[in-house]
Amino acid sequence: MWQAPPAPVSREWLPVLDMSAPGPQNRLTVLVRFLLLIPQLVVVWVLSVVAFLATVIGWFGALVLGRLPGFVADYLTAYLPYDTRVTAYLMLTVDRYPPFRFRAPEYPVQVGLRPGELNRLAVLFRIFLVIPASIVQGLVYAGWWVVAFVIWLVVLILGRMPQALYEATTAIVRYRMRYMAYLVMLTPAYPKRLFGEEPGSEPEPVSATRPLVLSGAGRGLLVLFLLLGVVSWVTGSVTGSVSSDDDNDDDNGPNPTQRVMAPLVPGPADRS
Question: Which terminus of the chain, N or C, has less C-beta within 10 A?
């Protein structure tokens, strides 16, 4: 019995990140990586201020037009790859210093963006829709920075980034790029695939990160970074809450309960 062929499955297009495979790194540039990046970080900060203003203008424009105004899209599609190149260099995935220009087709970190039609309702509520992705991005990024000193030592000693660590770090860089692209309305596609693609998802590999197929060790490191991010957030919240309570206690003076407990609890009360 004849059966109709299955309908083609439409795949949502996501912003892409193309990076070269991990290679040897100059230990001297690794040693002073943060100092080398100070000028770039200043430039990125200035560009980000302009990007914020452009995004605000673009939000109003997208509500009316159903897409970003041309000049806003042009600036943001230049700014986001610049920011991604600096982030990739900062996170030790590449050894080549990022150039001080928007267009850098020769650089080993490339970002593919396709700004186009946008859903006006999704634009209207963009700041709320992006919250879950913002939390994921913030946790995994913070988790990486919790062990950044250890990662820096590993790359400094070995002169290269181990493959599993490279996979996990580039996954963070890519997710952060997709999150920012969605936030500034360069794409209607919600950021996803933090843990990469399945093997064989693309017929021909385009680069070391497209498709981004993570090994078991790479996925394990990503989970570790997420857990460290959660621990960092909880610790910061508890510390901030305790500090706030201490400040309030200092301002208002000890309450009756504190007076009763003072002889039993070591601390400032012992010295009063």
Answer: N
